[in-house]
Write a structure and sequence with these properties.
The chain is an alpha/beta fold and 369 residues long. It has 2 domains: 190 residues, Glycogen Phosphorylase B (Rossmann fold, 3-Layer(aba) Sandwich); 156 residues, Rossmann fold (3-Layer(aba) Sandwich). The chain has 14 helices and 15 strands. Strand 1, helix 1 and strand 2 form a beta-alpha-beta unit. Helix 1 packs across helix 14 and helix 7 packs across helix 12. The longest helix has 16 residues.
C-alpha cells in the first residue's frame, strides 16, 4: 500500500491562489505516483468536492474577501492516514494537530504565508496592526513548534521561520513546483486577438489586494513607451487600481479572472511579467511565467530574491522605487530574447514532478517517527 496523506488547508478550490494550486497540483501528481492524498478544507457552495476531498463547515472571513474560515474539525469521512500535513496554522490546521495526536501520526506543516506581515492589510483599525502582528507571530511559533517537520518553499522562508519567528522545529526547503506540461511556451496569437491586445505587453496575474502592491506596477509601467499593462485576476484592490489607472497616461487592460487553461497563453503573450509584491514566500505566478519563457521583474523582497534569478530570468528592483522598477522593466524588454532562453532552461528545475519527489522523500523519512 502507498503512502496515505491527509492535507489540511484553510484555502482550496474554488479559491484561486498559489496555496490552492500548490496543493491541488501536488495532489494530482501524488495520485499519478500511486499514492493517496486526502484534503480537508473549508466548504463552499461554488465547489463540488471530488472523492478524497473533505469539506468542513465554514463562514466568510470578514477581513479578506473571497476567503472562508473552516471549522477545526476532523471529518468522519477521512480514512486512516500515515502522515498528517497542515498547510495552515489556523482554523482547519488545528484539526490537523488533533488528528496527529489522536493517531500518533507524524505532523508535517508547510509555511506558506508570513501571516504577521499580512496584519496591516487585514486589520480594519490602523492602531491594531502592530499588536495583532505580534500576537500572530507568537501563535505561529507555538503552532510550528508542535510539528515534527516544517516545509518551507524557499531559503528566505526558512530564515524568517527560524530567525524571526524563533521556530525550533527542523525545517526542509521543498519548493512548490509548476505543472510544466500546462505552463509552457505556446503561440499566443489567438489570445492577443481574443482580447484585442497589441504591441508591447507588461502584465500580472493573481489576486488584486493591497499586499500585492500593484499600484507600484501601474506607475512604473506608465513611463514605458508604447506599452500596455495587462492585469488578470481580481480582488478587493481592483476598484482602486482602476481609478488610479484612469489618471495615468497608460493603456491598462483589466481582463478579470481567466480560466486556468488560458494562463499559459496569457504568460506567453506578455513581453515581461511585473511582480511588485513584498510578502511572497515563493511567488508561484513568477515561476509559471518563467516556465512559459516570460522574464519577470520583481521586488527585491521576500522569497522573490530567489525565485527570480537577477540578470538571468529577470531583474529585481528596490521596493518603493518606481523609477528603478521602470528601468528594470525596460531592461527586461530590451533583453527579452536572452532572458527567455534562461527562463526555459529552468523548466526541469521548477517542475511539479521534482517537487512531488522531494515531498515523497519527506513523508517517507517521517513515517513511524
Amino acid at each position: 500500500m502507498g503512502q496515505r496523506i491527509a492535507a489540511f488547508t484553510d484555502t482550496y478550490l474554488p479559491t484561486v491562489n498559489g496555496v490552492t494550486y500548490s496543493i491541488s497540483d501536488v495532489r494530482e501528481r501524488w495520485r499519478e505516483l500511486g499514492e493517496r492524498m486526502d484534503v480537508v478544507f473549508p466548504d463552499s457552495s461554488a465547489y463540488d468536492p471530488e472523492p478524497g476531498e473533505h469539506p468542513v463547515r465554514s463562514v466568510p472571513f470578514p477581513f479578506y474577501d473571497g476567503y472562508r474560515l473552516g471549522a477545526p474539525r476532523i471529518p468522519e469521512s477521512l480514512p486512516a492516514v500515515d502522515v498528517v500535513h497542515a498547510h495552515t496554522p489556523f482554523a482547519v490546521g488545528l484539526a490537523a494537530t488533533r488528528l496527529a495526536r489522536r493517531t500518533d501520526a507524524p505532523l508535517v506543516a508547510t509555511y506558506h504565508t508570513p501571516a504577521g506581515e499580512y496584519a496591516p492589510y487585514l486589520t480594519p483599525l490602523e492602531g491594531l496592526s502592530s499588536p495583532i502582528a505580534r500576537l500572530t507571530t507568537r501563535y505561529e511559533r507555538r503552532f510550528y513548534d508542535r510539528a515534527d517537520l516544517v516545509c518551507v518553499p524557499s531559503e528566505w522562508a526558512r530564515s524568517r521561520l527560524e530567525d524571526r519567528l524563533g521556530v525550533s522545529t527542523p525545517t526542509r526547503v521543498v519548493p512548490n513546483g509548476v505543472d510544466t506540461t500546462r505552463f509552457r511556451p505556446v503561440d499566443a496569437t489567438a489570445f492577443r486577438e481574443r482580447y484585442d491586445l497589441e504591441g508591447t505587453l507588461v502584465g500580472y496575474t493573481g489576486r488584486h489586494s493591497r499586499e500585492k502592491n500593484l499600484e507600484e506596477l501601474l506607475y512604473a509601467a506608465a513611463g514605458l513607451e508604447d506599452a500596455t499593462l495587462v492585469l488578470s485576476g481580481d480582488g478587493p484592490a481592483r476598484p482602486a487600481l482602476e481609478a488610479a489607472s484612469g489618471t495615468l497616461d497608460l493603456e491598462v487592460r483589466f481582463l478579470g479572472m481567466l480560466e486556468r487553461s488560458e494562463l499559459p497563453a496569457f504568460y506567453a503573450a506578455l513581453d515581461v511579467f511585473g511582480f511588485p509584491s513584498p510578502v511572497e514566500t515563493q511567488g508561484l505566478v513568477a515561476l509559471e511565467a518563467i516556465a512559459c519563457g516570460t522574464p519577470v521583474v520583481a521586488a527585491r523582497a521576500g522569497a522573490l530574491v530567489e525565485t527570480v534569478a537577477d540578470g538571468r530570468t529577470g531583474y529585481h528592483y528596490p521596493p518603493g522605487d518606481t523609477r528603478a522598477f521602470r528601468r528594470a522593466l525596460q531592461r527586461a524588454l530590451t533583453e527579452r530574447v536572452r532572458l527567455e532562453a534562461a527562463c526555459l532552461a529552468r523548466r526541469e528545475e521548477i517542475c511539479l514532478s521534482t517537487a512531488a519527489t522531494r515531498l515523497r522523500e519527506v513523508y517517507a523519512g517521517l513515517e513511524g517517527t
